[in-house]
Amino acid sequence: MNVNKVLDAKGLACPMPIVKTKKAMNELESGQVLEIHTTDKGAKSDLTAWAKSGGHELLQHEEEGNVFKFWIQKG
Predict the structure, then answer these.
(1) Residue 63 and residue 28: Cα distance in Å, rounded?
(2) What is the pTM assigned to this prediction?
(3) How many independent structural domains does the chain possess?
(4) CATH number of the domain bearing residue 25
(5) Residue 36 is part of which domain span?
(6) Per the UniProt record, which residue ranges are transmembrane (predicted)?
(7) How far is residue 73's CA from residue 75's CA, in Å, rounded to a whole number?
(8) Residue 13 phi/psi, 5° resolution?
């Protein structure tokens, strides 16, 4: 997968991962991919809902130890 930007949001509690994701997404062009790393357990539902409401696509997510990784393509 071609990733255009990586956001490290580890150690941040809700709503900061979403706030940082939104800011990072604003720096990307349509079709580009943002990779997000977070330790917030609520991020899966939060980022899924946020991506959908913003017209973006959650391409993939995985859990690696206590780190959740997400790949979102800008709509």
Answers:
(1) 24
(2) 0.94
(3) 1
(4) 3.30.110.40
(5) 5-73
(6) none
(7) 6
(8) -100, 160
Sheet containing 5-9: give its strands across: 5-9, 33-38, 67-73, 57-64
Residues belonging to the active site = 14
- pLDDT-based confidence at residue 14 (cuts at 50, 70, 90): confident
Q: Which amino acid is at 45?
A: S
Nearest CA among 30, 35, 31 for reference residue 20: 35
d(Cα 50, Cα 61) in Å, to the nearest integer?
14
pLDDT at 1: 85
Using CA atoms, how far residue 51 sits from 30, 39, 45, 55, 65, in Å, is 13, 18, 10, 6, 24
Left, alpha or beta for 14 (phi > 0: left; psi -120 to 50: alpha)? beta
